[in-house]
Amino acid sequence: MKYSVIAMVMLACSVFDAEGQLSPRMNVVDGVVYVIGLGGSTGTNNVSNFSLRPGVDGSVKSDISSEKWEDIFSVYTEEAYVRNLNQPVAGTYALTSDGVSFTPLYSFSDATNYHVIFSSSGFLRNTGDSRVLPPADRMHFEFHVPRKNVSRTFVEFVYPESDVLPENMLRMYICFSGPMMPGEVYKHIRLVNSRGEQIEKTFLIIDQELWDSSRKRFTLLFDPGRIKRGLKANLEMGSPLREGEQYSLMIDSSWTDVNGNHLQRNVVKQFRVAESERSRLSVDNIKLFAPAADTRGPLVIRFDQVLDQMLALKYLTVSDVLGNAINGELTLERDKILKFTPYLPWESGKYFVRVDPLLEDVAGNNFNNSFDIDLEQTNRLNRREAVLLEVFVEPAAR
After folding, report:
1. For residue 11, what is the DSSP state?
2. How confident is the model at residue 338 (pLDDT cuts 50, 70, 90)?
3. Greater confidence, 360 or 258?
4. H or E element: which one contains 82?
5. Which of 126, 117, 122, 131 is nearest to 64 (CA)?
6. Which of 241, 382, 212 is nearest to 313 (CA)?
7. pLDDT in tens, 67-81
8. Using CA atoms, how far apart are residues 229 and 357, in angstroms rounded to an integer?
């Protein structure tokens, strides 16, 4: 029998009314699992040598370690339970008025079965409780988290947006409309050439997938060992991208989001490869277009290299002559054009565009160094002073 956690559901497991006998029961409310009927810190039954003491955060303060609590009261996924794996769901234990609760570190997944195991003997052994064991020592509670009736997640953007990209491109970003399930990335992304052949060993695959905190943006790294000249992987296999070739980044719709739903559709990002970009960023290749005073028109900063989307939005600010930041919205269009729109109309006068020297283009070149620098011939620079660009907003015509 399966139990939904949409509402409070209780399964009474070995309930005993005889005085002095342990009477645990289990339930799930709003994603938290409870074992009640233990007496707890406010129970009336005698619990010798045992005291649950709530801390400021409500966590359990007792002689029972978290490892021992897992022996007493554990939650397992369907797979771990069926395969008899000793891999309980990670989480925290806290006091209730009559027992203990378990809150998972991450919310229980939709469309998933879970199993709760409570050991009466483990509880009595670890607490020194003198009450009588119920006949059923190992109590089992199963519940099912239903699939939410939510819209299926889709790929909102793939950056860079340009359809012509340099041969030595380092990163791409895949942005989703909702949070995705981690641990599946490289099963659902592949790069193919114009002949439909998959390019092997293209991406840098690491265990700690590069998600933002919302798990809605993934950073896809091309293997830098194949891109940087002179390294073994580059010498043996060459760059994963070849100048003049057409490629497609394929994103498979079987990729699941946190609700267990597949993506709405397959996505294909097509692009042509141009020659490598090995020049560091330079103010000589930036053009500024000033807005009009008394308007909220955008200040436009145009680069001649395809910028790293996320670093561009992070590393550029606008200030007045006193160094006060101007509040506004910064956007990147066509990978090369930054537009800053203030929340309040511009006043006439001088302004500064401050650019962190660590801003990069998609090939990893910044204002200090190119990515593919030859250290035998050139010293690497580590300046952190902002690059300052002046712009003057003319007074409004009278």
Report:
1. E
2. very high
3. 360
4. helix 78-82
5. 126
6. 212
7. 677 778 899 999 889
8. 23
Q: pLDDT for 33-42, tens place per residue? A: 988 877 644 3
Closest CA relative to residue 17, chosen from 151, 168, 132: 132
Q: In whole angstroms, what is the distance from residue 1 CA to residue 72 CA?
A: 23
Peptide bond into 342 cis (omega under 30): no
Distance CA 145, CA 33 (A): 12
Q: Which helix (H) or strand (E) holds 121?
A: helix 120-127
DSSP β-ladder status, 328-333 and 286-289: unpaired
To which H or E segment does residue 232 belong?
helix 232-237
Average pLDDT over residues 322-333: 95
Peptide bond into 160 cis (omega under 30): yes
Q: Which of 54-58, 120-124, 391-395 has the highest mean pLDDT?
A: 391-395
pLDDT(9) > 90: no
Q: Output the pLDDT for position 53.
A: 41
Residue 99, both tokens: 């027992």
Residues present in the chain in total = 398
Q: Are 164 and 247 in contact (CB under 8 A)?
A: no
DSSP lists the bridge partners of residue 388 as: 354
79 burial via Cβ count (<10 Å: 0-12, 13-18, 19+):
exposed
Nearest to 267 by CA among 203, 176, 149: 176
Residue from 306, 11, 319, 292 nearest 143 by CA: 11
State how far Cα 297 lies from the chain centre: 34
Token pair for 52:
């649950």
Q: Is the predicted pLDDT of residue 49 greater than 50, yes or no?
A: no
Instruction: Tokens for 321, please give them.
Output: 């002559």
- At 381, give phi and psi (nearest 5°): -90, 150
Name residues whose C-beta falls within 8 Å of residue 366's C-beta, 6 or more positions apart in sequence.
280, 281, 357, 358, 359, 360
Amino acid of residue 113: N
Query: Rounded distance, CA 321 to CA 181, Å?
Result: 46
What is the model's pLDDT at position 130?
55
Average per-residue pLDDT in the chain? 83
Closest by CA position to 133, among listed 14, 34, 39, 33: 14
The DSSP bridge partners found for residue 165 are: 273
Token pair belonging to 268: 């294909």
